[in-house]
């Protein structure tokens, strides 16, 4: 199957080497902690994390989109964002609260 045909669910089955990104300083230790807390968790667990500290998670996602160009990782983070917004479209407001230029990470 071509990568362009993958669904969000299929993309999210991938394993992203977050620890490698931290060891190469592409993400911070704080980013790694948040990603470990969030990644591969149930929808209800993710919803609770976003309710408690949504801006921090959105900042991690947008920082990754800004700093990492590996296609599989970008697809994965976009799938996480898609999943988050599909579950609750009102979470789009988190992007406005955490970014001076809301759309920049998506257009780079």
From TrEMBL:
Superkingdom of this protein's organism: Eukaryota
InterPro entries assigned to the protein according to its UniProt record, in alphabetical order: ARM-like, ARM-type_fold, ATPase_V1-cplx_hsu
Xref: Gene3D superfamilies: Leucine-rich Repeat Variant (1.25.10.10)
Pfam families documented for this protein: V-ATPase_H_N
SUPFAM superfamilies: ARM repeat (SSF48371)
GO CC terms in record: vacuolar proton-transporting V-type ATPase, V1 domain
A molecular function GO annotation: proton-transporting ATPase activity, rotational mechanism
Listed name of the protein: V-type proton ATPase subunit H
